Amino acid sequence: MCEKSRQTRWERLTGAVITVCGIIMVFFQMYTAEFGVLGGSKQTSLHLLFVMVIGFLAFPTGKRVCTALDHVLSLIFMIGAAASLGYLFLNNGRLLMRMQMVDPVGDLEFIFGILLVIAVLELSRRALGPALPLIAVIFIAYAFWGNHLTGVFYHKGVTGRRFIEQMYLMFSGIFGEALNVAATFVFLFILFGSFLEISGGGEFFMDISKSLVGRLPGGPGLMAVVSSSLMGTISGSAVANVVTTGVFTIPLMKKTGYDKDFAGAVEAVASTGGRSFLRLWVQAHLLCPNISACLIPR
User: Fold this and answer.
1) Most confident of 6-20, 212-226, 277-291
2) I want to staple 52 with a disulfide (CB 3.0 to 4.6 A). Which of 81, 184, 215, 239 is the partner?
3) SS3 for 41-100, per residue?
4) Would you say 231 and 270 are in contact if contact means Cβ atoms under 8 Å apart?
5) Are 227 and 245 spatial neighbours (Cβ–Cβ below 8 Å)?
C-alpha cells in the first residue's frame, strides 16, 4: 500500500476490499477442491479475477506516494481485467465449442484479449519488477516481427487476432498449464502453509530439523534440506515444498548471513529433492501390500 503518515479513506476502502476478496477466494478454492473444479476456463478465469482485483489494489503503482491519477489507472486496469475475465466466464460454453484457428476472433473478444494481456503485464511489473514483463514483451515482439529475421529465428509471423486467440481464447497462453496448476494446486498448498505457520505446525518441522542439524556447519541450509524432506512426505510437489517450508527456511538463512539468491537456490533444490520421499513411500506400498510386514522385522 502507499506509505503515508495518515491512512486515507482510499486505503481503508482498498484494505477492506482486499480482505473480502481474499476470504471469498479462499472459500472458492476450498469449495472447488472438495467438490471438483469448474469446467473449461471458469476455474482459471475466476482465480485470475481474484488475483487481478487484489493485485491492483495491493500494488497501486509501485511508487511511495500515490496520486489520484494512480488510483484511477489502477481502477481502469482492474475494471478492464474484470470485464475480460467475466466475458470468458459467462461465455465459457460457447467458447469451448469454437474451432480453434478456424473460427474468427470477434471484435469484442479481440478488445477484451488486448485488455487482459496489458493488465497481466502491468500487474507483473508492479508486483515483480520490470524484468519479467520486459522478457514477455520481447517475445511478443518476436511473435509479430519474427518474419523479418533470418536463419533459425525466422518464422512466418502471426496476426494480431491470431495472437489474441492463442493468449486469450485457447489453453496455450495466459490460461495455460501454469495458471491451471496455480488455480487448482499451488494456491491450496500456499493456504496450507499459511495455516501451518499460524497453527505452529511449521515450527514443529523446523524444530525437528534444528535438533538434527542445527549445530552443524551450514545448519540453516541443512535445515532447509531436512524440513523439505519431511514436507515432501506430505505434498510430493517441489512447488508445494517451496511455498510451505520456504516461508521459514529462507528468512532464517538470510538472517544467519546467507545471500538471498543462494538461500532461494538451496530451498529450491532441497524442495525438488524432497518430493521424492512421497514417491518412495508410494512405491514401497505398491511393492509391499502389507507394509508393516516389510518394514518391521520379526
Assistant:
1) 6-20
2) 81
3) CHHHHHHHHHHHHHHHHHCCCCCCCCCHHHHHHHHHHHHHHHHHHHHHHHCHHHHHHCCC
4) no
5) yes
